[in-house]
Amino acid sequence: MNILALGLLTGFVAPWFFMLAQLKDMGYHADVVSAKRLYNDSGALITVLVLVAGVIGVVSDVLFNIVMGLVVFRELPRWDKKEFLFTGRVERWHDDATKTHPSDLTRRHTKGLLWAKRLNAIMPGHV
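Now predict its structure.
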């Protein structure tokens, strides 16, 4: 199980984070205006490659949220709260942990704080 999770993390999720971080540093955002600007700046091939990588990244993130989120937080995502990506679930538990007294923190709170720290180490200010 650990090798499968490591393979998912390094093969799919990590490149997604690095691509997003690089595009964010370059001034691009996840919107139509940035997609048009990327097309004008880089051409059709780069734009298509970024969009394909983005779709693969989002699908990988949703799968990571279902599988690893279930293992880490021992709950399914809250689809009604639009918690499709792993970051959404981490943000929920992180925000709840910051509002909770330290003596009342649960396992999910501590995991939310830990994963927020990990995600912010990769992309500062992410959570």
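The CA atoms of residues 23 and 29 lie 7 Å apart.
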